[in-house]
Design brief:
- This protein has eleven helices and twelve strands.
- It has a seven-stranded mixed β-sheet, with helices on both faces. A three-stranded antiparallel β-sheet has the order 10-12-11, covered by helices on one side. A two-stranded antiparallel ribbon has the order 8-9.
- The termini are far apart.
- It has a domain of 244 residues: Aspartate Aminotransferase, domain 2.
- About 2% of the residues have low confidence.
- The protein is globular, with a radius of gyration of 22 Å.
- The protein is an alpha/beta fold.
- Strand 2, helix 4 and strand 3 form a beta-alpha-beta unit.
């Protein structure tokens, strides 16, 4: 049976609405400058990368080989230990964070999770799912974790192994916790058993291309890192990658006879199309292309901050960040540009697809509304 004319008309209206809404948004970390036309033929197949991406399976309608290459790329960029890394393509940052916390729980059942008050709302949900003890740590004004508070609280609870949930780009201000500093804190407190997970949903593909490189990955002390694929790289489908130390993953894997593979992921059955998109993006851009995207986004963010301050708006951003923070925007602007607002602040996220012309239009609208209010 085919769709009715009314059904087709409804889809056409939806396409127009989504196209219009996609043109203006500035407040959410989702890149839209991508073209996956090469991959359209693969939508004819039920692609399912079930089981472990590095293990054979009786199911062959999959993109396991491409997923392996994607994971290897991210492991290299994140400076994971050679011959001791593993990972898979997730459905987004939340699943990657859940996986990192799950590994930490299995390794340290009596551990306490420490995370800042600026941590993404989904983390508290993940902790509830896993039944893990946790303590929220104060944040600094810029959104970064308060290291003095973290040190003091860990000292009080030094009988329990610490599990650090580090933010490498908080939701509202893109603040980055310093993993190298946190790692040194463990030595100061003589804590030999600990786990550090890095939530690098947005910044995982920004930080590797900044000089000096922010301390956020395996070489700085992380045990697992989660990145979103649809944020900085860009994808029509939410996706991500989680990378972890293989010796830790081996402790939780188990063989499933009916699929002829290992059960090492959260969901088991996984999207087989998203690894193709990430592979396509990696191959199309290359390292130089990714670095150029970062440079362009940072330049646009600097332009945005400067232009807003020129018209009297108290805009600011954390060092080498693409998120520009400003006072709470007018409801009309929030609606038009789909701006995220919390705790009295609004932000603009200057992804590579954001142009200076779009920023100029936003600033013009801000000025017009300010004049109208007067």
């Amino acid at each position: 049976m085919a769709l009715t004319d009314a059904d087709h008309a409804r889809l056409s209206r939806l396409h127009i609405d989504i196209k219009d809404h996609t043109a203006n948004f500035l407040g959410y970390p989702v890149s839209k400058d991508f073209d996956y036309t090469d991959l359209l033929p693969f939508l004819e197949f039920p692609l399912n990368n079930l089981g472990d991406p590095f293990a054979d399976s009786t199911w062959k309608v999959a993109t396991r080989e491409f997923e392996q290459e994607v994971v290897a790329f991210f492991a290299d960029v994140l400076r994971a230990p050679k011959d001791n890394w593993w990972g898979y393509v997730t459905n987004g940052g939340t699943e990657g964070n859940l996986y990192g916390l799950y590994l930490a729980r299995e390794m340290m059942p009596k551990g306490i999770v420490y995370y800042s008050q600026d941590t993404h709302y989904s983390v508290a949900k993940n902790l509830h799912f896993l039944g893990m003890r946790s303590i929220m740590i104060r944040s600094q004004l810029n959104g970064e974790i308060d290291y003095d508070d973290l040190r003091a609280v860990m000292h009080i609870h030094r009988d329990a192994p610490p599990i650090i949930f580090a933010n490498i780009g908080t939701t509202m201000t893109e603040a980055r916790d310093d993993i190298r500093r946190i790692r040194a804190m463990m030595d100061e407190l003589a804590l030999s058993h600990y786990y550090i997970h890095a939530d690098a949903a947005l910044c995982g593909m920004i930080c590797p291309f900044i000089e000096p490189r922010p301390p956020f990955d395996f070489a700085d002390g992380a045990d697992s890192v989660s990145i979103s694929g649809h944020k900085f790289l860009g994808s029509p489908i939410p996706c991500g990658v989680v990378i972890a130390k293989k010796n830790n993953v081996d402790r939780i894997s188990r063989s499933i006879s009916y699929i002829g593979s290992l059960d090492t992921t959260i969901t088991g059955s996984r999207n087989g199309f998203t690894p193709l998109m990430l592979w396509h993006r990696i191959r199309s851009l290359g390292i130089d292309g990714m670095r150029a995207r970062v440079d362009k986004a940072l330049a646009t963010a600097a332009y945005t901050e400067r232009r807003l301050r020129e018209i009297g708006v108290e805009a600011w951003r954390n060092p080498d960040c693409i998120t520009v923070v400003l006072p709470k925007a007018d409801a009309t602007l929030k609606e038009k540009y789909q701006l995220a607002t919390a705790n009295g602040i609004t932000h603009l996220i200057c992804l590579p697809n954001v142009s200076t012309e779009q920023i100029d239009q936003f600033i013009n609208d801000w000025q017009l509304l300010s004049k109208a209010e007067k």
